[in-house]
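Support request from a user on the community tier.

User writes: "When I paste my structure tokens into the form, the page sometimes reloads and wipes my input. The last time it worked, I copied everything first. Here is what I submitted, just in case something in the input itself triggers the reload:"
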């Protein structure tokens, strides 16, 4: 029997061990080494679990490219949650429909994209990626700092849901395409 290739999360952790000081990410708001990126993603994963997220819960991300976006995306994967990144170019009505379909436990959003979240008929906790809101909505850094950041890293199972990617295909109506950890590895 042929050995299965390692899952993405395992490979990322291994790479951080081998090249901890190499640059892993560059975004408009800064850069992170492999060691610091994986440590931050693990901290996000622990915070998600502290916030009540379970295996298979969905996390929506709606924001511009930033370190916080990537930390949430990979942190959710590390927490064995499914990530549904949504396009910032979608109109609020479409965002509302996608949120209703995804039924996220948490939604991380840039403040200027909040309208679509507010239109959705879904119960989701909102965290602003780009700083705290004047309405008491926490910013990502505040949300992250509110947790202990502790907890043993988890290893995903092959069939854990990893991502839900929305595509309109040829119909114009976006549909969620689900990928497991194994789907994304092979």
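"...and here is what came back when it finally went through:"
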């Amino acid at each position: 029997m042929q050995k299965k290739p390692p899952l993405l999360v395992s490979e990322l952790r291994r790479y951080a061990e081998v090249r901890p000081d190499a640059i892993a990410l560059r975004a408009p708001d800064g850069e992170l080494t492999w060691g610091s990126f994986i440590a931050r993603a693990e901290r996000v994963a622990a915070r998600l679990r502290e916030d009540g997220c379970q295996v298979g819960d969905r996390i929506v991300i709606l924001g511009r490219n930033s370190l916080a976006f990537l930390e949430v995306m990979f942190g959710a994967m590390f927490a064995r949650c499914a990530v549904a990144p949504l396009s910032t170019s979608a109109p609020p009505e479409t965002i509302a429909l996608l949120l209703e379909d995804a039924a996220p436990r948490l939604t991380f959003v840039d403040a200027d994209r909040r309208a679509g979240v507010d239109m959705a008929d879904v119960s989701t906790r909102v965290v602003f990626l780009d700083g705290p809101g004047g309405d008491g909505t926490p910013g990502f850094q505040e949300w992250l700092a509110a947790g202990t950041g502790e907890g043993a890293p988890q290893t995903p199972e092959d069939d854990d849901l990893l991502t839900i990617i929305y595509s309109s295909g040829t119909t114009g109506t976006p549909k969620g395409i689900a990928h497991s950890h194994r789907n994304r590895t092979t």
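Agent notes: The reload is a front-end session timeout and is unrelated to the input. The mean pLDDT is 88. DSSP finds seven helices and eight strands in the chain. Escalated to web team.
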